[in-house]
Amino acid sequence: MTTITQLLLESEDPETAARFYAEALGLGDRISTRGTDEPSTGFRGATVSLIVPDPVVVDGFLDAGTAAGARAVKPATRNLFGYGGTLQAPDGTVVTVATSSKRPHGATPGTIDELVLQLGVTAVAESRDFYVARGTEVAQSYGRKYTSFATGDISLALLKRKGLAKAAGVDAEGSGSRRLAIVGDLGELTDPDGFRWEDQEHDV
């Protein structure tokens, strides 16, 4: 089974970025950062997605994020699937926070049920086959629209790039560095859409 142990985000100010993820979102054990000067504009093709128990927890994370310097991209609203909103972290990463529950039920503030790295890809089926061929276990698959994988504490999901951008409330256009490396046990490789994997954990 493929396991993702950490997400490595690149930033011009990695120390500040690390503090944001640790203090505002409570992800210091699952997200690390390192410096980069590579240019990156617009949407980088991925979102870091927090799945939480109820709407009160969603609001708590969005409030904490904006208080720590994130930009509110999509205010939290009810939708067909539940309740959620989107932030752009100070380092430029798009972060979504969502719940399938439309009503509060007393969940503990700061609780994260699941952390998902969603990748916006050109062809879901091609990317899915790439990962399956390397032993990554499919958790859910909806044809050419969506696939998720069982990858441990950090789940991996594939969606069409435009669909992912629309769901997050951002423009799909972007260029330059993705400023993301996936740390896990697939070794050093790059997938069909240019997302990089590395094989060891990193500290700031």
Look at the structure and give the CATH class. Alpha Beta
Q: In the CATH hierarchy, what is the superfamily?
A: 2,3-Dihydroxybiphenyl 1,2-Dioxygenase, domain 1
**Percent helix:** 10-25%
The CATH architecture assignment turns out to be Roll
The main sheet orders its strands as 5-6-7-4-8-11-10-9
Please describe what this structure looks like.
With 204 residues, the protein is α/β, with parallel strands linked by helices. It has a single domain (4-198), classed as 2,3-Dihydroxybiphenyl 1,2-Dioxygenase, domain 1. The protein has helices spanning 14-24, 55-67, 124-132, 161-168, and strands at 4-11, 31-35, 40-42, 46-51, 71-79, 82-88, 94-99, 114-121, 137-142, 146-150, 154-160, 174-176, 180-184, 189-190, 196-198. The strands form three sheets. Strands 5-6-7-4-8-11-10-9 form an eight-stranded mixed β-sheet. A five-stranded mixed β-sheet has the order 2-1-13-15-14. The longest helix has 13 residues, at 55-67.
Features:
about 200 residues; alpha/beta; 2,3-Dihydroxybiphenyl 1,2-Dioxygenase, domain 1; five-stranded mixed beta sheet; 15 strands; about 20% helix; about 40% strand; Lactoylglutathione lyase
